[in-house]
Queue: 4 jobs
Job 1
Amino acid sequence: MKRHKILVVDDEQAIRDMCKKALEWDGYRVDVSQNAHEALELLDKEEDCDLVLTDLNLPGCNGLELIREIKKRYPHCKTLLMTGSLPLKHIYTKDCLHKPFDFVELVSKIKKVLFSP
């Protein structure tokens, strides 16, 4: 069985660490990045990424801009946006996780996105 690869992008180390721990515990391979520039560099090196979980508010390039760039460069890679700053109805994406969230919610949403058509 394939172990899916996930990249977690957030400027808060505590969020990166929590996501990495939860996802590795559930069997995923996980890389982390603190900003969009670093995330794109990692994706250029590691072409087997299945999903990018990114925060909306990143320094420099925000999460929505990062998702647009990922969709252009890596159309096979799925994305999931996380935010704690805006109500979900104001974000134009169905794949969104609202902070704060727990391990169960994170893993459930990841599985939903990974295994949706």
Job 2
Amino acid sequence: MRPIRKHSLTMPTFDTLSNWLENHGRVLDGNISFGTTNTDRSRNIVHFKANGVSPGAANTDFTISHTLGYIPVTIIGQDTNNGGLLYRGSAAWTKTTITLRCTTVTATYNVWVA
């Protein structure tokens, strides 16, 4: 029977970890971007941006198509021109659509989902 070989894994030194963190910090410093559009090449945070106008009745479902390819988890950002808040509608979100509602009528909105 052959002896079992143990892999020689050594713990990284403080200097190794320090160098690793410094290099990652340089890479990330100022290089994280939502981009300006859904196809912007500088965009490196996976999300989907949409804009439009909410329905003429408050708290009414409306649907937005997206291209994430997965069911979004949450709204990561939003703004409206009249103080309305966007929130989940009554239909379940899918890999291609989300359903939202707005607390005010005809709000011009920007929304980011991920």
Job 3
Amino acid sequence: MNTIKPNPKINVAGVTGYLLWLRQDLPTVYAKAVQTFPQVAAFDTVLRAQLQSRGLGFDWSSIGSALSGAASSVGSVLSHVGSFVATNAPAMLTTGAGLYGLVVKQQMLNSQLQLAQAGQYPAQTGIVQSPGNQPYMTSIAPAGSFTSILSGSIAGIPTWILLVAVAGGGLLLLRRR
């Protein structure tokens, strides 16, 4: 049986949320991004100043507005940062050896980047420990709101159409009784 240790949710959307997720869940990659991208370094400087001025016990969302200006400069290089993250992500992101693990890792990192680009919250991630296997990080809870779920698709069919079809079928069944 797999056990999952969830990481805390990030309550800030967009580029700011992505950078906070990166800092929290992949700190070594974040540190390398700070050294590589001046825009991420500027964001980190503002973040550190906010953390020092607020002390312990704050909520990420309470400093989100202060960070949005610094994060906006990262928005112009976000796709480059995302590629950098994918290249430098540690091995613990894979679910095992081989191609499958690499595909799952890339899907999770791409998903987090796409959520940031769409101005949405990062998905919550966690560390999965399976018996006899190495631990790995994966998305454990989708981010976003009910409307983002409805705007998604399953097998290429919009989710809202599937929900309407299921509800309509259920009503027909109830009516026949």
Job 4
Amino acid sequence: MTQPLRHDTLTRQIVAVSLLGGFVLAPELASANVLDNFGNALLGILNNTFLRAIAIVAVIASGLLALGGRIQWMAFISVMLAVVIIFGSAGIVDYIRNNSATASLEAPAVVASIA
């Protein structure tokens, strides 16, 4: 025998169905323009001048500590990887996208056909 739905379970189901219905009725949420704008804004924040200056200071400080032999190497590697990932992310993605578009799934012809 099934037990009747509790009040909070029924309320959650009503809210979930209402949200899904709202998303279906709001097609502007699915537009790529909103996501493009968000992505460009996030990339702009990560590549602004202030964060770039902080990254330069972090690299200089890590380098000086490494030269003096007073650094934990995991901290040094973490700083360098963070700088590469944050500031090189656009270049990394562009490199992967450009090279994956030129990859061919077909094997090259060994013998050219005679026409």
